[in-house]
Amino acid sequence: MTDFLSLEEIEEARSRLPPEVRHTPVVPLARGPGEVGGERLYLKLENLQVTGSYKARAAFHFLGSLTPEERARGVVLASSGNFGQAFAYAGKRLDVPVAVVTPQRTSRFKVEAIRGYGADLVFCEDSFLARRPKVDEVARDRGMVPLDTMEDRRVAVGHASIGLEILEDLPDVEAVIVPVGSGGLVAGVASAIKLRAPHVRVVGAQPAAGAAMYRSLEAGEPLTIGDYKTMADALWVMRIYAFPFAHVRERVDEVVLVSEDEIAEAFRVLLHRGKVLGEPAGAVPVAAYLSGKVNGRSKTVAVVSGGNVNPELAARLAAA
Q: What is this structure's pTM?
């Protein structure tokens, strides 16, 4: 039986976040001149978070929870980019060694960023399912603490502070759209929102190319799906795990799917109308709103989860 996140532990975790973790702004987005001053869509700009994504919240919370002995051993985790950057930075600030396992196909832009923040990179084969065995191997060989970012509740608790900030900055919010990969982010944000303001609707948005969480909800159990490609590479997930699945089923009102074309269009709207550089994964919630998959009459916040977009991809999308 799942031990669900509580409001008490979410608030306690938030109180221990260091100054490095930013309280990011919530700003309105008008789709055109006629909407200026009457916007219904707002953006939670986690692309402005330190290291360029929301994951710094979980990184500092998790590393801060370690014992002195665990800190000395260091932590190894798997990441396709953003978690690696966040843990590399937090590890450097907290003096905790960090190793990041990443597939060969990970964007060179994100690989160099992880290295730049000071983590040790270990490459694995280009399969989502190859990541966890390599993490275990590195942990055994180096004596490091292995982190399963998909299942460790401290990760979701760290993410949850986003939900508290949204409620504080926009008290009359009616709906919140959150990008979905493994489900840890939406599990944390939905828990914070539903435990403090249960009337607020929480919607998960996922690329239709993979849709592991969507399919798992349809099946009524966590699934493993086949490999796939999406421009929203930060949401690349083939397996859903029990902890986030239980939270999504219990605390998320709906999960919707968006196409690659809809993600690309949302990227351009963010850039040209909002002056916001969001990576494709961060544009997914905006895509759900703009494509009409979420009620446009409600005052809605879309979580722009990150802005670490490959410059070449950004140029192609902006010019399309």
A: 0.94
